[in-house]
Design goal:
alpha/beta; Rossmann fold; binds S-adenosylmethionine
């Protein structure tokens, strides 16, 4: 039987301090409406660490620093890891059919580079890899696909690539049999698709614009900016901008915009899609 955890009563002060620590470490702005969820998560950590009082936990988090293992665990418990295959499929098809072709014209024989930022357990980049398979895009030239998330547990699930009903709720029977195989615990993405995507852990808010990743032709950052406030969005969008090649595109989900975000990205419309583009020529 699962142990019922009694949520501790967080004082306003401790709640505020915890929210600040989470913000500093991730850009995620916790709101008062999330209090019950935060209380449950703190209760889990108090039990795991054999501590009694939320204030002690807050001190523990603080003493360990914003890059500590404990902070990663706490962020993992608080973040929303919701995703499913073929989410907003018309946008993913647009990427597979139009944007990749367009990027290929610019890249010649060099790989077209695609990054799924905040990829959870891989549902988004694997869906795109499947649509690229449908479009026979892999036959036309190299494509390099990267999925990143700040959550180590999500990335471990991405590498395992075994999914249950919730992740597959928008996946047709035809696609299930073409791209998945039944295994214990659900359906596993076939190896031919798995090998198309690399996964790396990365905190978008903390890592600056430089770094190991290089630049991309297409960045998907869908359903993530909505958890940030405006300053955090500005910071993350600037980092995404710097990781786009000239002419490269950023796509957000349909429910997100760059309203109030100061950015050099240009907003363009292609059919029904909003595409944020880095200019080909940069003004000095
Ligand atoms: C709602 S999910 C994104 C879903 C997916 N992109 C989609 O549209 O289906 C948000 C993900 O962003 C990740 N995340 C939140 N803050 C982050 C940060 N600062 N850096 C990297 N990943 C972050 C969370 O771990 C979570 O897995």
């Amino acid at each position: 039987m699962a142990l019922l955890l009694t949520a501790p009563n967080l004082t306003e002060v401790v709640l505020k301090q915890l929210a600040e620590r989470v913000y500093e470490a991730s850009g995620i702005r916790l709101t008062d409406r999330q209090r019950p969820q935060i209380e449950t998560r703190v209760a889990q950590r108090l039990q795991a660490l054999r501590l009694d009082d939320p204030a002690e936990y807050e001190k523990h988090l603080g003493s360990e620093g914003s890059r500590s293992e404990e902070m990663e665990i706490f962020l993992d418990l608080l973040a929303v890891h919701e995703s499913y295959f073929f989410r907003e499929i018309s946008q993913l098809s647009f990427v597979a059919d139009d944007l990749v072709e367009e990027a290929r014209e610019r890249r010649g024989t060099e790989p077209v580079r695609i990054w799924s930022a905040g990829c959870v357990a891989g549902e988004e980049p694997y869906s795109l890899a499947m649509l690229l398979e449908d479009a026979e895009a892999w036959k036309k030239g190299p494509i390099d696909m990267l999925g990143t998330d700040m959550s180590a547990t999500c990335l471990e699930r991405a590498r395992q690539a075994v999914y249950g009903k919730a992740s597959l709720r928008q996946t047709s029977r035809a696609r299930r049999s073409r791209f998945f195989e039944p295994v214990h615990g659900g359906l596993r993405v076939q190896a031919s698709v798995r090998r198309r995507v690399r996964f790396r852990r990365m905190n978008l808010y903390r890592e600056g614009p430089s770094g190991w990743m290089g630049q991309f032709d297409i960045i998907l950052c869908r359903n993530l900016l909505l958890y940030f406030d405006v300053p955090a969005r500005c910071r993350v969008v600037e980092a995404l901008y710097s990781r786009l090649r000239p002419g490269g595109c950023l796509l957000l989900s349909r429910s997100e915009t760059l309203l109030n975000v100061r950015t050099r990205l240009q907003t363009t419309e292609q059919g029904d899609e909003i595409v944020y583009r880095r200019a080909m020529e940069e003004k000095a």
